[in-house]
């Protein structure tokens, strides 16, 4: 019997393909059954379910933190019942998973995954994982998978492994989930312990001294930046159309293409279109520049977006669930730029306090709609000649305190701006 902890997209897809399962979720208030025969139970029923299924495979949704009562209960049960197993989505599919490339890091995972899939489409590559397609929806007969891999998934993964691991730079993120920055780094580096000799991992040079790097049997390639990668893999950076931060994503994707198939197709790479909500520019009727960077959910992404527009006066919308991260480095950069902050979300007061310390104008807007309205008022006072402003939504925070996703946040931002 499959026991599913959490019933989000990942486990819902497993339940559709492997029904009947038993699914438990903190949002369930009573026992029920779906159309496929899956039993849906409140999370507090887990102990009883485990006693009745001592040899069960227990699959956790990646987003459930280790401190969650279901995880604690499951781990205690597995410790005393050797035939029971707590698995990640990746571990569950490990026996049937084709050769796979895993891509992780703090920022750029989605773009790098999409770019590499674009480069290798003629080879039959399929992409999934954190990019939005659960593994249960991928074809196990595909030649290989390219998987955007979150630190949450890696935390719970003990069996599955890639043949190639690409790790983008690491900065503070999801600290409240992992418990510490050190734990976050450890989970990001876990795959290199599973790699065999001659299998490759491309890693930031800043992690070279980590104990996992000394233990790994894999061929570890360390890089400092895009130019460093270009030198290692003999890539022509001038032939790549993207600027930072997307240049690093493109260079990593091209490096992987070179490793896997000895190909460097710059024309194909340059035909790739960056997805929505990532430094996505648009203009209102008056010609004012707005930028939707709603996918900027951590301080590093927001710092990159600020650097991108450093020559302009930036009207910056910040705020949401900052996941317990120290935002001091972000405000160090902000203090060096021409920036006014429009704070929204659950950390509004924290942002206003940090802005005061950085001697930066900050308005406690609390909601996105109010922030956009105040920015519109500023735009209305500027003459066309003097207008060198950009309105930038790059929140350095997750969206779930006020929105269903970063996508909804970005779409509402655009709608409010164009009203």
From TrEMBL:
InterPro entries: Mur-like_cat_sf (IPR036565), Mur_ligase_C_dom_sf (IPR036615), Mur_ligase_cen (IPR013221), MurD (IPR005762). This is UDP-N-acetylmuramoyl-L-alanine--D-glutamate ligase. SUPFAM superfamilies: MurD-like peptide ligases, catalytic domain, MurD-like peptide ligases, peptide-binding domain. One of its GO terms (molecular function) is UDP-N-acetylmuramoylalanine-D-glutamate ligase activity. Residues 103-219 form the Mur ligase central domain. It comes from Helicobacter ganmani. GO terms for cellular component: cytoplasm. PANTHER family: UDP-N-ACETYLMURAMOYLALANINE--D-GLUTAMATE LIGASE. Pathway: Cell wall biogenesis; peptidoglycan biosynthesis. GO terms for biological process: cell division; peptidoglycan biosynthetic process; regulation of cell shape.
């Amino acid at each position: 019997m499959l026991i599913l902890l959490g019933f989000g997209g990942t486990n819902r897809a497993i339940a559709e393909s492997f029904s009947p399962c038993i699914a438990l979720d903190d949002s369930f208030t009573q026992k029920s059954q779906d159309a496929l025969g899956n039993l849906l139970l409140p999370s507090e029923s887990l102990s009883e379910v485990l006693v009745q299924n001592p040899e069960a495979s227990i699959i956790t949704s990646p987003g459930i933190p280790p401190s969650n009562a279901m995880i604690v209960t499951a781990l205690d049960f597995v410790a005393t019942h050797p035939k029971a197993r707590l698995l990640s989505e990746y571990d569950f599919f490990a026996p049937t998973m084709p050769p796979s490339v895993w891509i992780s890091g703090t920022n750029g995972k989605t773009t790098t995954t999409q770019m590499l899939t674009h480069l290798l489409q003629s080879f039959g590559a399929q992409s999934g994982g954190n990019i939005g397609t659960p593994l249960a929806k991928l074809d196990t007969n595909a030649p290989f998978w390219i998987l955007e891999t979150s630190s949450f998934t890696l935390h719970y993964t003990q069996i599955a492994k890639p043949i190639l691991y690409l790790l983008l730079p690491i900065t503070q993120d999801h600290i409240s989930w992992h418990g510490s920055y050190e734990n976050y780094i450890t989970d990001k580096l876990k795959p290199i312990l599973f790699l065999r000799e001659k299998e490759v991992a491309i890693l930031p040079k800043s992690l070279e001294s980590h104990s996992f790097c000394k233990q790994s049997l894999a061929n570890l390639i360390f890089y400092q930046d895009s130019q460093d990668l270009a030198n290692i893999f003999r890539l022509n950076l001038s032939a790549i159309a993207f600027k930072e931060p997307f240049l690093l994503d493109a260079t990593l994707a091209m490096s992987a293409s070179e490793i896997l198939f000895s190909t460097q197709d710059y024309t194909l790479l340059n035909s790739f279109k960056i997805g929505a909500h990532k430094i996505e520019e648009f203009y209102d009727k008056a010609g004012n520049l707005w930028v939707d960077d709603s996918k900027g959910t951590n301080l590093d992404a927001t710092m990159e977006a600020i650097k991108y527009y450093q020559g302009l006066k930036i009207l910056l919308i910040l705020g949401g669930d900052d996941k317990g991260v120290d935002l001091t480095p972000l405000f160090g950069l902000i203090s060096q730029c021409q920036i006014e902050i429009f704070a929204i979300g659950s950390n509004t007061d924290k942002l206003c306090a940090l802005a005061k310390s950085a001697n930066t104008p900050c308005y406690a807007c609390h909601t996105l709609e109010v922030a956009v309205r105040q920015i519109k008022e500023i735009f209305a006072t500027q003459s066309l000649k003097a207008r060198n402003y950009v309105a930038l939504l790059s929140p350095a925070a997750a969206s779930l305190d006020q929105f269903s996703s970063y996508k909804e946040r970005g779409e509402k931002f655009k709608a409010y701006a164009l009203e």
